[in-house]
Amino acid sequence: MKLKATLFFLLVALQCNAQSSDFNSISFKKADSIALSYKNERLTNLPELSYKLTSHLTTDAERFRAIYRWVCGNISNDYRLYFKNHRKRQRFQNDSLKLKAWNDEFKKVLFKKLLKKNTTICTGYAYLVKELCNLAHLDCEIVQGYGRTSMTTTETLTLPNHTWNAVKLDGKWYLSDATWASGIPNPETNRFEFHYNNGFFFPNPELFAINHYPVDKKWLLLDRNAPTFETFLENPILYNEAYLYLESHTSPKKLHNSVRKNETVFFEYQLLSSPELEQIYFLIDSGSSTVKTKPTVVKFQNQILSLEYTFKRTGFYDVHFYIEDNLIATYVFEVKK
Fold first, then answer.
1. Do residues 100 and 202 both lie within one domain?
2. What are the tens digits of pLDDT across the range 15-47?
3. Count of CB atoms situated within 10 Å of the CB of 43
4. Gap between the Cα atoms of 212 and 144, Å rounded
5. Are 197 and 240 in contact (CB under 8 A)?
6. Contacts for 316-320 with beta carbons within 8 Å, 24 or more apart?
7. Last residue of some domain: 205, 235, 265?
8. Which CATH number fits the domain that encloses residue 264?
9. Considering the entire predicted model, what is its pTM?
10. Tens of pLDDT along 267-296?
11. Does residue 4 carry a pLDDT above 60?
């Protein structure tokens, strides 16, 4: 019995640590090069495309990487289509027949756009990754759930609004988000621009769970200490660039925090690499002014970044955390007397 228990907990531990560092010994240069060489390939023949992307690679991890990089680099995100679907789903959420009718109608529009124009929303990204993987004999699943961004209103997050993938490699499941990795909206035009973010390729499940929550909790890949949906809604706002810097996020654990004047606030993160400590700062917005300031204490040891800050005045503050001019996370503090 003790042996079985030991093996069980070992399996859990291995599953929880399923992330990109498992493949540090593998170079993905060849897979990336193949993906880039088939730029602008059409989707009229998926078996042929899958073969082109994977047939000259030797490991399943490389084959998945080539598929993933191709999708991220060739499929654009249609924001107008996403928001239209979001409005309709919110409108019909209490009418199951109308919601089903809309979902059926929307699927036709979605896949027509994907096949003809190489543009889609998260559902299309996840579908395409899964189809190309399955054609390459890779075990890949679509994960439906909830995604949180700075634009998400948690009070109305009652229906799943995001989709991503899980792929099984060497007996372990790994998460990835091709939609958020593919690009970002132009801040001036709000149009999609390709800008690959490698942080969404097999991220730490604990970090991923801060702004991804699956309908089926098994896809958290966190068998121990799995967060609840209520905890997920309370999480800080984590931005895409965070995945390039953070291995995990420790504190503050909530978006909304209450502290006393002159009370020390602690921030802690595990980083993927060593940062330029002088380029770590906060932007603190009081509603009437925004101030760029350094933490009162900065420590970095064993990849753990620890910060401290003390609010000298009462009020409400939005605290934006930056590393090297990249926005990582946002917190809200109510400072009381």
1. yes
2. 445 787 899 889 999 999 999 999 989 999 999
3. 17
4. 10
5. yes
6. 316/286, 316/287, 317/284, 317/285, 317/286, 318/284, 318/285, 319/282, 319/283, 319/284, 319/285, 320/282, 320/283, 320/284, 320/285
7. 235
8. 2.60.40.10
9. 0.90
10. 999 999 999 999 999 999 999 999 999 999
11. no
- State mean pLDDT over 64-85: 92
The set of residues, in sequence order, having a beta carbon less than 8 Å from that of 316 and lying 6+ positions away, is 286, 287, 332, 333, 334, 335
For residue 7, give both structure tokens.
């093996």
Domain-ending residue, one of 207, 235, 263: 235
Statement to judge: residues 187 and 57 lie in one domain: yes
Element counts in the chain: helices (H) and strands (E): 11, 18
Q: Which residues pair with 151 in a beta bridge?
A: none
- How many structural domains does the chain have? 2
The parent domain of residue 258 ranges over 249-336
Could you tell me if residue 4 is inside a domain?
Answer: no
Q: Are residues 105 and 34 in the same domain?
A: yes
As a whole number of angstroms, the distance between CA 231 and CA 255 comes to 10
pLDDT tens readout for residues 182-197: 998 887 888 899 999 9
Whether 3 has a pLDDT exceeding 50, the answer reads no
What CATH number should be reported for the domain holding residue 95? 3.10.620
